[in-house]
Design goal:
Length: 322
């Protein structure tokens, strides 16, 4: 099979389109013939070595397709089933081996492309808004990068929770996308101080929560948007890693809370994983959650896809197609 691997860390040029043996499923595994592969910022972190992998390594942690082989002792998955997965198997390839316990069924009403586009980012949006900080009806929140693939899904899930959403974006075109996703207010941070504007929108009260996937460039402003005892949820490093933070800073700014969650801890059990995924797919089938696929690249062009992701031009999900 063909797979995109890194043999060293670095810029997008380290991504190689290799030919390797097609793997056979082991005990309690299924093999998925992939129809669509999702690209996420974690793939960049793996590529550059921020989150190191043993080398050589196939990148990717999200895909959707059809089971075409099952291993020994697999009793609850069948050849021909439509499935998707996140985190538990590398996905920049024509086939992926996945634990039978870590697949989710994709209903016929949801396409493979939409499933691959929505699962990782949608599950993330689900746990952020339902569990990390459970949003309440009519409560304000701020979501950075609201026009990106993850941002648009977070906005929509926040609206499903009944919250009011402030989104930050960099351009007028992205502002239109963020409003279409459901933002009640949109701040162009390239033109306006998002802290001052947030204070204006909230009549000086500040916010109970900021969901910050940008990191280095925004975290200080995000803290300054919070009301006393508010929570900063750092869930990404798109602009770089946040430096070490003195806990006294949180006290001085209003006894604030700071958390840095990751998806794996919120889908640790099969039941929780399936429940979140089933919510996403049901909302998609009902038209309550819309996935915006910004651009598709051939698997062999994964380096170009990473360059596009790094350009910050994307207004939706980027997919690889085997």
């Amino acid at each position: 099979m063909r797979a995109v691997r890194i043999h060293e860390t670095g810029e997008p040029d380290v991504l190689r389109y290799d030919e390797i043996d097609t793997p056979a499923p082991g005990e309690n595994q299924v093999r998925v013939k992939l129809n669509a592969i999702g690209i996420n910022y974690i793939d960049v972190y793996h590529r550059v070595g921020l989150y190191p992998l043993p080398l050589p390594a196939i990148l990717g942690r999200e895909g959707a397709g059809v089971i075409d082989a099952v291993g020994a002792n697999v009793t609850d998955a069948k050849i021909g089933e439509r499935v998707a997965f996140v985190l538990d198997a590398p996905s920049y390839a024509e086939y992926a081996l996945v634990s039978a316990q870590r697949i989710v069924r994709v209903p016929d009403a949801v396409s493979f492309k939409d499933a691959a586009a929505a699962l990782l980012q949608g599950l993330t949006a689900h746990y952020l808004c339902f569990n990390t900080y459970p949003l309440k009806p009519n409560e304000w929140c701020l979501i950075h990068a609201a026009a990106g693939g993850a941002g648009q899904l977070a906005v929509q899930v926040a609206k499903i929770r009944g919250a009011r959403v402030i989104g930050t974006v960099s351009t007028e075109e992205k502002a239109r996308v963020a409003r279409a996703a459901g933002c009640d207010e949109v701040i162009l941070y390239s033109q306006t101080d998002f802290v001052a504007e947030t204070r204006r929108i909230t009549a000086g009260q500040g916010l109970p929560v900021v969901y910050d996937s940008v990191g280095k460039d925004t975290w200080q402003g995000s803290l300054n948007c919070l009301a006393p005892r508010g929570m900063l949820v750092l869930w990404g490093n798109a602009s770089g890693a946040v430096p070490p933070i003195d806990p006294l800073l949180l006290m001085n700014k209003g006894s604030l809370y700071l958390t840095r969650p990751t998806l794996g801890h919120y889908i640790a059990t099969r039941a929780e994983y399936a429940a979140r995924a089933n919510d996403l797919f049901q909302w998609m089938a009902e038209g309550k959650l819309r996935v915006r696929i910004d651009k598709q690249f051939s698997l062999r062009d994964a380096a170009d896809a990473h360059r596009y992701l790094a350009s910050r031009a994307a207004m939706g999900k980027i997919l690889l197609i085997p």
